[in-house]
Amino acid sequence: MISDKILKSINNLPAFPATVHRVSEVISDPDFSVGDLVNIIKYDQSITANILRMCNSPYFGIRYKVSSLREAVVYLGRKNILNAVYTAGTSRYYKKVKGYYWGATKLWEHSVGVALMSQILAKKIYDREDPGLFTAGLLHDIGKVVLGEFVHESFQEIMDLVSNQGYSFLEAEEEVIGVNHAELGGEIASLWNFPKEIRDAITYHHRPDLIEKGDDSIPWLIYLADQACMMMGIGGGADGLAYRGLKEVINKFGLRQRDFEESIVLLLKDLDEAKELLDLMEND
Amino acid sequence: MNQIVVGISDLKVSGNIGDVLITYALGSCIGVAVYDPYVVVGGLLHFMLPDSSIDGNKAKKNPAMFADTGIPLLFKSCYKLGAEKKRMIVKIAGGASIMDDMDYFRIGQKNITALRKMFWRNNVLIDAEDIGKNLNRTVQLHISTGKVLVKNSANVFEEL
Question: How far is A2 from chain B (nearest CA, A)?
């Protein structure tokens, strides 16, 4: 049960930038025009500024010095523009997070890490990348932005269940606060009109095994990317690694130990090349 | 106090008494702190994975990424500043795991095993350790005193 207090906090979140959804619509048309995209993006100054800050990141692989939004759109290309716009549009929510972290920028670092890792794993497993997956990675912990305040208030009680009674952090949130951050994140995504696959990836990112039917590959990939980032301490917080491992994931993807470790090595390289994405938090 | 940050897959050594080496959020990675009180030299390694054989090129470029290449480099870097193995105090922290990961990827446990094997083969004794469980740890090594402090989920630094 989500209490009225928490519902109120959700409603106080700034609306999700319409620009981002518009870009996503336009870009799904194979004949989209650069001019149309530029015209949509340019009215959101914060997103425009963020895109210009990020687009020379080695992660996006642009070899030219980009100085205008039009150039950014042209050089980023279809796949990267969507990832860049989502990154530019979501960083604003991660500035203040209580409860889980001691440093304010850590949840953003973790979210970008999971987005990057989701692409590495998708490439390794399916030989393709997926912008929906990237978005789900950026937003998988969005519930923490709201729940953090309540975790902060009940931190001792939650940690007692985790440290002494064998609860996972997720289960302890549910027991003490009445809702966990994954479920709450799914609610936020639904309020923001995200499609079902993204909502499910957020809601089930710790328990993809609970999805009953349909394609569950995005939630499982986000789950695995999240676990990898927790193991590596990427944006690691007070909840630590106190989440359950689901061994089904190994059969689900036929992933060997070696594949997993190689992916972790690649993640470190991508994180290094994606510093400009992490820096959005400091410059904003 | 001059704080020197040791990143993921990174190591730093120092002989300056004003320096404090620090590494954040270890997760399944392991922080290895070594210190020679006689010459007042210490080093801190934050390695990520147990075995460099998964990527030999990476190991050459960044030996601190793996236990088997990072640990020897940590000791050698301290020797260059005058430290001697027989005097070195060794403390480790990290190697945490996801819950119920018995049949899972077990990076934390593999890191711990790789480190113990190396130390055993090279006659290195561990003086203190804070490893395993499900928590993130932040580690500090104070060069002036050799004190190693570990911070866990309670957000309090405690001496190891």
Answer: 26
Residues of B annotated as part of the active site: 29
- Interface contact flag, A233 B24, Cβ < 8 Å: yes
- What are the chain B neighbours of A152 within 8 Å (beta carbons)? none
**CB pair distance less than 8 Å for B27 and A227:** no
pLDDT, one tens digit per residue, over B44-71 is: 999 999 999 998 998 999 999 999 999 9
Q: Where are the domains of chain B?
A: 2-159
Give domain status of residue A240, yes or no: yes
Residue A144 Cα, gap to closest chain B Cα (Å): 17
| Separation of alpha carbons B149 and A7, rounded Å | 41
Query: Is the CATH code 3.30.1330.200 the one for domain B2-159?
Result: yes
Query: What tens digit of pLDDT does each residue of A44-75 get?
Result: 999 999 999 998 899 998 888 898 999 999 99
The neighbour count for residue A32, using CB atoms within 10 Å, is 16
Average pLDDT in chain B: 94
Pairwise CB contact (< 8 Å): A241 & B97: yes
Residues 6+ apart with CB under 8 A from B76: none
